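Quick start: read one record
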Amino acid sequence: MRGTGLSHRFGSNPELFADLDLELRPGQIVGLCGPSGSGKSTLLSIVAGWEQPTGGRVERVDVDRTCWVFQNPHGVARRTAIDHVVLPLLARRHSRAEAEERALAVMSLFGLVAVAGRPFRDLSGGEAQRLMLARAVATAPDLLLVDEPTAQLDQRTAATVNQTLANVAQENTIVVIATHDPATRAACTHVVDLSAGARSHAEARR
C-alpha cells in the first residue's frame, strides 16, 4: 500500500501536511506522531479510504479487510466482553465454538480472559479499549488502524499492548497507529512525524 505526495487541508485553513510519501507493508508497525491538531487522525482516515486527500493519491494493493480501533471505545452495554469479539467471527461463518476459541485466544493476549463474561458496561475504560483491539485483531485484518491505543492505559499495560500490536504486524498485517505516546512511538518500526508542520516525512526506525 502506498501514498504519494499526500497533502490535506480543511477549507481555507493551512495545510496539515504536504508532499508526504508513505509505503506501508505487511510486518510494519507505523506510528503517526505529532501533537493534537497535526493531522494524525486525518491521515488515518486517508489511509482507510474514508477521506480523500486534497493532494496526492493512495494506492491500495492486497488490502481487502481493514479494521479501525477508535480512541473512544463503544460497545453494547448489556452484551458480554466475549460477545463483542465473537460477533465479527460469526459474521464470517465461524461456528460458535470456533469463534469462542479464537476470541478467548486473542483476549488472552490483551489480558481480558478474566472479564470475558462481564457486561461491556462494567468494564473499565482501559479494559474497553483493549477489548476493541482484541475484536479487531481476532478478524485478522490486512490493515489495522489504531487511534491512541494507550491513552487510557497504565504504563505496564501499555507496554503489553505495544508488544501485542508488534506481534500482530508480523502476522502479515499492516499496523498504523496514531499516537503521541513516546513509548508507543519507540515500539514502531517506522514513524511519520507530523510535528514539523506542512512538509512532513516518513522515518524508518529500524
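Strands lie at 2-8, 17-23, 29-33, 55-59, 66-69, 143-147, 174-179, 190-193, 201-204.
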